[in-house]
Amino acid sequence: MITADLPRLCGADIEVPLADGTSRRYVNLDCAASTPALEAVVRAVNEVLPWYSSVHRGAGHLSQVSTRLYEAARQAVAVFVGARESDSVVFVRNTTDAINHLAACLRTPPGATVLTTEMEHHANMLPWRRLGPVEHLPPPPSPAALLDMMDSALRAAGGRIAVVAVTGASNVTGEVLPVAAMARIAHAHGALISVDAAQLAPHRAIDMAAMDVDCLALSGHKMYAPFGAGALVLRTALVADAEPLLAGGGAVDFVTVDDVLWTGMPDRLEAGSPNVLGAIALGVAATTLSTVGMERIGDHERGLLARADVALTTMPRVHRLRLWESPSVDRLGVVTFTVEGMHHALVAAALSAEHGIGVRHGCFCAHPYITHLLGIDAVAAASVRSSLRRGERAGIPGAVRASFGIGTSERDLDALTTAMAELLERGPRLEYRQDEQTGDFLPVSDARTWPRVAGLPALETAGHSAGCGQF
User: Fold this and answer.
1) Regarding the domain with residue range 15-30+294-469, which homologous superfamily does it belong to in the CATH classification?
2) Residue from 31, 105, 215, 365 carrying the catalytic annotation
3) What is the Cα–Cα distance from 350 to 362, expressed in whole angstroms?
4) pTM for the full model?
5) Is the peptide bond before 266 cis (omega within 30 degrees of 0)?
6) For the chain, which has fewer Cβ within 10 Å, the N-terminal or C-terminal residue?
7) Architecture of domain 42-291
8) Does residue 105 carry a catalytic annotation?
C-alpha cells in the first residue's frame, strides 16, 4: 500500500482522548466530510501571512504581492480541473456557495427546467429550485441505465430542460458517475451540464475541456485545504451579463445612486474582500495533488476500498449500502453501512469514544438518496418528518460512513475492522445515553477533555444538532 510517498497531512499522528481516560492515535475515516490540511498547504499559508493584504486596486507592495498570489491560485485551480481559456474560475466559500451562485446567475428561457438525480447532495439539489422546476431521476440500477434514463427524460422534455445538474461521485456510496457520457447526452439535447465535483476533485482527475463540462463546483475543505475557499469554474459567456448573487465592492465598474455598471468576470461574482488565504491554500492543494498524480491517489484509495470491502462483507449483521454492485464500477473510498440491531449514532459514538476512530453517521445531507437505500417509503418518510417537527430525533434513520483519503492507511482500516468486530461480538464497552435533541449517543461516564484556544470561551457541548448529519 503506497502511503509513505504520498503528501503528509497536518495532524497525521495526533492522539485523542478516549472516554476511559486513555488516549490513542486518531483514525480519521471521515474524509468525505472534510479533510485535514496538507502540510504543504499549511506551510504556504504561514509563508504568505506576513505578506497578506487586500487584493486588487491596492498600490502598496503587500497588496501587489497578495494580488499576484491570489491570481496565481486562480490559475492553479484552472489547470487542476482542465479549464478552457474561455472559462472563468470564481473563488467562493465552498461547493454549496458555488452552486447557489450559479443557480442565481444563469439565465434560462421561460418555462425551462433542471434535470438532476435523487442521488444528489443537498448542495446540488436545493439551489436549483430558485431557477425553476426541478425534475429528479430515481437512483438507477447501473451507469448504463442512468444514461438511458437521462436521454429519455431529455428527449421527452423536447428542449424544455436547460440544465443537467449531477454529482461527479456520490458522497453516500462512492460511485463515480460517467460525467463525460452524460455531458454528450445533455449537449445533444441542447442542455448545459453542471457537475458537483466536491467528492470527485480530491480523488480523480478532472478535465473539463475533454469531458465537455460547462460548469463545475468544488470545495477546498475536501481537497486538503480547509481554509474556507472553494471554486466555481464555468464558461464565462454563461454569466458574463448576469446580475451577481452578491452585490458590493469589487463587482462593479461604476455606481450612481440609481444605476450600477457591473464589471467583467470573474470579479463580477466576487463582491467584497475575498478569502485570499483560502484561495492560495486551494491553489497550493490543487498543484500538490496534480504533482502527486491523481491516478496514484486513485490506485491508493482503490486498494484501501478493496480491503475494507473484504473485511465488512464477512461481518455478521453489517449491511453495506450500495447502488451499483458491478465490480467494474469505479468507486471512491467510501464505505457506508448499517448494523442490524444497533443505532447508527451508537455505532459512531462507540467507535469514537472507545477506539479513537472518526466516522460519520446519519443521512449525509442526501435525504432522498439515503431513504431510497434504506428502503424508507413515503409513509415512513412522513412519519420521520412528523417526528422532526415534534423535536424528536431519537428514532431518525441513518447509516454509518467510513471514508478515505491520501492519509488513510491499511493500519487505519485494520483498526476499524478490529473495533467493529469487538462491537458486533460484545456491544459497546461503556454505557451510553441518547441526547433527545440531537439523537447522538454520549458515554454516561466520559473522561475526555477538550482542547481550548486562547480567546475563545470554553463550551461544554458541541452547541447544536448536526442537522443533516442526523437526518
Assistant:
1) Aspartate Aminotransferase, domain 1 (3.90.1150.10)
2) 365
3) 15
4) 0.95
5) yes
6) N
7) 3-Layer(aba) Sandwich (3.40)
8) no
Q: Round the average pLDDT of the chain to a whole number and report it.
A: 95
3-state SS, the chain, equals: CCCCCCCCECCCCCEEECCCCCEEECEECECCCCCCCEHHHHHHHHHHHHHCCCCCCCCCHHHHHHHHHHHHHHHHHHHHCCCCCCEEEEEECCHHHHHHHHHHHCCCCCCCEEEEECCCCHHHCCHHHHCCCEEEECCCCCHHHHHHHHHHHHHHHCCCEEEEEEECECCCCCEECCHHHHHHHHHHCCCEEEEECCCCCCCCCCCHHHHCCCEEEEEHHHCCCCCCCEEEEEEHHHCCCCCCCCCCCCCEEEEECCEEEECCCCHHHCCCCCCHHHHHHHHHHHHHHHHHCHHHHHHHHHHHHHHHHHHHHCCCCEEECCCCCCCCCCECCEEEEEECCECHHHHHHHHHHHHCEECEEECCCCHHHHHHHCCCCHHHHHHHHHHHHCCCCCCCCCEEEEECCCCCCHHHHHHHHHHHHHHHHHCCCCCEEECCCCCCEEECCCCCCCCCCCCCCCCCCCCCCCHHHCC
CB contact at 8 A, 194 and 63: no
pLDDT, one tens digit per residue, over 149-174 is 999 999 999 999 999 999 999 999 99
Tell me the per-residue pLDDT of 334-372, one tens digit each, with 9 for 90 and over.
999 999 999 999 999 999 999 999 999 999 999 999 999
Average of per-residue pLDDT across 412-437: 96
pLDDT digits (tens, 9 = 90+) for 2-39: 455 899 999 999 999 999 999 999 999 999 999 999 99
Residue from 278, 331, 259, 281 nearest 92 by CA: 278
What is the pLDDT, as a whole number, of residue 462? 63
Residue ranges matching CATH 3.90.1150.10 in the chain: 15-30+294-469
> By C-alpha distance, which of 283, 251, 237, 248 is closest to 81?
283
> What does the block give as the cell for 133?
422546476
- State the Cα–Cα distance between residues 194 and 185, nearest whole angstrom: 13
- Of 177, 173, 123, 125, nearest to 149 (Cα)? 177
